[in-house]
């Protein structure tokens, strides 16, 4: 725990007398609060310039409940501090679904609190085991309560926190608070604070855009498995208590000198993943500057250095892939930056990470003289290393990375060289890291400005006399020559290890792979272009591999094989199967891939019992991200041409991994379409294949749309033995269900999906857009991922065979 000291406050760790004080100041009952009841039939309407809220009490009114506008995006139904200009929001009902002007919050005559959008559709309702409240109350603690006639609490916002907890509020077992997405986007973000059912209190990264916990990066130290409640005391003390009320661990200390009643207090899991406790003076506070301005001040925060705590495990770390995290000068906030030669994917959401401004393994990048290194002291990217070498020099490390197109960064420390490839994860710059990072960048990325300066200076000077022009021209040439020599200089000293040759994938002999597969004994699958066998390489005895043996072919065999190796070798993404090596010996052509223990999505999807709804959604989202990478983010745009459940494999954690690039078609950077013979699998092939039309990435979008429908319904697109004839073709039946508002028929045997019909409808609408007959109407895969994660709205789709509307 980290505590900040200020001149006007004294926030020390409490002693035993202070502990006794907070026992006296346990949370007060709501009965002691000043409030006004909200009667049945009362309502609020979202208006642009009108105050639409229920205040907490006639006398103090510290809090209000109502509509607060969020930029130009819409309205939150929220609770906020009402006596400060910032109107700081502490709770919201519809954080993931903003509503528009004219939406209404109503305490209905039958005792339900409901949020309706401007079209009269229910967006949210306060869930209660005993519906039928007699009134609602906005308490002066910031707690919104629905109560019965005898004042028994039926529902309260304190039991359903969003990203903030307040004094007198308690977190019970299995309660969690989830950070907002960004500073101005209140939807679910990437971090959460949870008191688990097993009694442990932790901060986690989440499997964004889902809220499942992934990696813990902070926890209480002395109370493993024994916590029962997190109490936010009126004195500002936040602590973990046992079932019998005994204090187990301190999260944040109390205000020991300044009276707590003089401040508004809150604790929030901020969008950067740090849990912070804040104070806001109720009256002006004299500061050393004498301004007396009031603002939220950070009292304490956990963890003390999030850059160090999120330094391993799954995901992109505190700042996203291909970036690094470092603390601000006041040591309170993580700062995220792209590594040299990279740019933010989205400047409005820097935690999406960064992308390189150049290619690594394209044809041009294989020329080592096109690259140089930027040095970063005390920098590292954990979990991105794929080769380690000991007993080498820094110069050897530079050359080893330079000659390997997969190597994006080499880290060097104490004679150890680690080669790292993109996406680089869990980056940090911190004095405790030590060593240095050698970041490989294209020449000219960092020096273009200096070159252009020389050119401008030379041009001006050459405008003088002939003799002076000649003299200055020679000087300019000398300067350019020295600059070029400096850029090209990479000191290389002979060592016991030889730098890797300019070949980027291991090459195996046919006999090696025949032995590794025990004579191609265990078949994993077969397709039109080859058969896949399970094998074990002697170099990696604990890691099984999948060996794809391509069918022997004379016509264009060499060219097609080289295209496939090139296509897969250039890719590097968490949702793609990685190519580990190849064999090209005579007519024998084989590819060595990662082995996916959980098989294909087809096996997983069409089995009994069916996989859970949320597992299916996670898989299709991963598939969408992998396709988005192939289409828009790797060095050459790649059309897969055969997206189907059989070609989506599942790793040990059931993450989707796109496989089988045997049909892949590469496009040059200046191309958007190609012409080729029909490829793909019946039921997933886009209509343009049969119409002699140019083929674009939209054929993959079509196939993904079919796959998405299959994942929703857990059935194949073409089902000859369907119970009813109108259900034989899933795509047509799904559209009929959407138009007829009978989407429940698609998931009628799936209880999880039936409870999440809003998501079912959204995903069916996305699928309908993807399978539009006109390719121009289909969204890009980037647009698909944005719609799936909620970053973009999903418009009403037209009939897939219609061309009347555009997305």
TrEMBL record:
Catalytic activity: L-threonyl-[protein] + ATP = O-phospho-L-threonyl-[protein] + ADP + H(+); L-seryl-[protein] + ATP = O-phospho-L-seryl-[protein] + ADP + H(+)
Predominant localisation class: membrane
CDD domains: B_lectin (cd00028), PAN_AP_plant (cd01098), STKc_IRAK (cd14066)
Bulb-type lectin domain sequence ranges: 42-159
Cellular compartment(s): Membrane
Family indicated by similarity: Belongs to the protein kinase superfamily. Ser/Thr protein kinase family.
Name of the protein described by the UniProt record: Receptor-like serine/threonine-protein kinase
Organism: Hibiscus sabdariffa (roselle)
Lineage of producing organism: Eukaryota, Viridiplantae, Streptophyta, Embryophyta, Tracheophyta
